[in-house]
Amino acid sequence: MMTSAIVTVAWGLGSVLWVELVRDFYHLLSHYWPPLYRLHVWHHRVFRPDLTAVSDEIYRQAHWYNDVPECLVMLAFSLLLWGVTHIWAPAEQWVVLAGTLYTLGFLFSAIARGSGLKWAHELTDYTHSPGAFLTPPSNWTVNRPYHWRHHFDNQKAYYCGTFTLVDKLMGTALSLKGKTIAVTGASGTLGRSLLHHLHNRGAKVIALTSKDQAMNLLVQEKNIPLKTITWQVGKESELVSELEQVDILILNHGINVHGERTAEAIALSYEVNTFSSWRLMELFFKTVRTNEEIARKEVWVNTSEAEVSPAVSPLYELSKRALGDLVTLRRLDAPCVVRKLILGPFKSNLNPIGVMSADWVAKQIVNLAVRDVRNIIVTINPFILVAFPMKEFFVSTYFKLFSRQTDA
Ligand SMILES: [Zn+2]
Ligand SMILES: [Zn+2]
Q: What's the CA-to-centroid distance between 40 and ligand 2, angstroms?
């Protein structure tokens, strides 16, 4: 009895997921197939960046040209699923009509909006409602900042309407095209590789380095001069005006004192690995104010797999773990998306015996970021894949329970 109830619920939820997948692929197709785009473009004409409608007439027309046909396609596919279950799994044929009912809800609200009924917009079109964004883009479901980016960041990304699954599969859950991305530790091995792969994705990259030398990027045997900003640990606040212009800040600088255990080595490790990154992250948070900044800005922090495993360098582990914990604590109420980079040992000047190449690691980081992975793990150690998410979940829950957002 119990199992058959579970199976029935699974078919019902599956039929809803099915029509959502149809919606997202139809939307994707609309951006690549001109006949459909001619209908869909009406949806893109409607909204101003503050999500108010350009005019009542265009608003109504957009629903007849875009939302209603979209719902009809979903309806047809939900009936197709019903037909298939009617033949192959007749016991479940009635429960899959949940997807049809769900689609009819959207169809009738699209017709109501097309007819110009005011209540219909406020009640049924959540992702296009104007007003201040209260949270950054969400991860598994589509909220207002997530969808805003489809209209005003990059129309060739962020296709999903309700669940973000299709964007995650397609690598369109984050667009790097045209984004200004600053990377610290830019002259290091990983820093260079990251700049390279981000540039390949169409980002405008900025190198932040302690070395007093302008950097180049070697692309197809051509040297491209990079915007290089020299800065020093302890002088993070001098970067504030630069950070205002940055969409994504990647905190990647670090030091490894290996086996040292002097007072100086302790101070240096925490200053560079923990506090310098933490200060830059806080300064960057202060540059996130408008809806556009909430939707587009991000911080990525390279905390390394030393968060959960030995790195044969005690002070490196201690200082990186402290940084990792501070990021976990602060991202509970961060104004923008914060990602962690959990990287295994790669070959670099700091670590000549690393197994992975920095170039491969950088490529994987970018691959996972465009799938909106918030904790980007790149390692050859399977233990990390299990241990890190567990550690992050428990520490984050503990911090949530025993700390609060304000003193009030
Ligand atoms: Zn839209
Ligand atoms: Zn679109």
A: 7
Nearest to residue 164, comparing CAs of 12, 374, 386, 6?
Answer: 374
Question: Distance, CA 204 to ligand 1 centroid (Å)?
Answer: 26
Res 355: pLDDT: 82
List all residues 6 or more positions away from 102 whose beta carbon is below 8 Å from its beta carbon: 15, 16, 19, 78
| CA 39 / ligand 2 centre spacing (Å) | 10
Q: What is the number of alpha carbons within 13 Å of residue 357 lying toward its C-beta?
A: 4
Q: Does domain 180-402 bear CATH number 3.40.1010.20?
A: no
Phi, psi of 287 (to 5 degrees): -90, 0
Alpha helical stretches, state H, 33-133: 34-46, 56-62, 68-88, 97-114, 118-124
- Check: CB of residue 251 under 8 Å from CB of residue 191: no
Q: How far is CA 356 from the centre of its chain?
A: 25
Q: What single-letter amino acid sits at 366? A: V
Q: What is the DSSP letter of 355?
A: S
Tens digits of per-residue pLDDT, 350-385? 677 778 999 999 999 999 999 999 999 999 999 999
Question: Which ligand minimizes its atom distance to the CA of 172?
Answer: 2
- Distance from the CA of 339 to the center of ligand 2, in angstroms? 26
Rounded to the nearest angstrom, the distance between the alpha carbon of 219 and the centre of ligand 2 is 32
Active site residues: 316
Q: Which ligand is nearest to the CA of 127?
A: 1
Q: Indicate which ligand has the atom closest to the C-alpha of 30.
A: 2
Q: Give the residue among 153, 252, 250 at the shortest CA–CA distance from 205.
A: 250
* pTM of full prediction above 0.70: yes
pLDDT at residue 119 tops 90: no
Listed by start position, the domains of the chain span: 2-126, 180-402
What residues does 219 pair with on adjacent strands? 222
